[in-house]
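Hi Y.,

Following your request, here is the sequence exactly as I used it, all 173 residues.
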Amino acid sequence: MLAVEVIAKKRDGLELSTTELQWLVAEFLAGRVPDYQMSAWLMAVYLRGMTVAETVALTEAFLASGQQMDLRSLPRPTVDKHSTGGVGDTTSLVLAPLLAAAGLIVGKLTGRGLGHTGGTIDKLESIPGFTTELDQDVYLTNLRRIGLSMIGAGPTLAPADKRVYALRDVTAT
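Below is the corresponding structure, written out as tokens. Let me know if you'd prefer a different format.
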């Protein structure tokens, strides 16, 4: 498989297979698909969109790219909310505490900025002493104790999400 073929297929409005999307994510993380080709693919997706099947396959590839946390031992339903874009996403900072106050456990995986306003992590890190670089034990302790914890993707947790998010930030995708 060649990255240029996957890019061209999406550019032309065709649906990518699960195998193609898994390959693209794995090869990107391994450094065999360079940033410029992933950026071209992201622009093709931005312009052409994704089918539900592609969205599911890409989500599963991102999930499989790193360590997964088992949250089944938590005592109440666990939720997350993810932005679909827009200028100045401030929803997480308001919605997450409200959901926690209502009795849900909010395990928020959040990202850096897409555009000029900064992302949730950027906003939280502007608070002196606040950190989103938590190990799994601290994250789970926070969820059990206060019902809310926000963490950023990293080298072991959703590394594909972190790398693609960084490209999206500088490519308007």
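The CA atoms of residues 76 and 104 lie 6 Å apart.

Thanks again,
Q.
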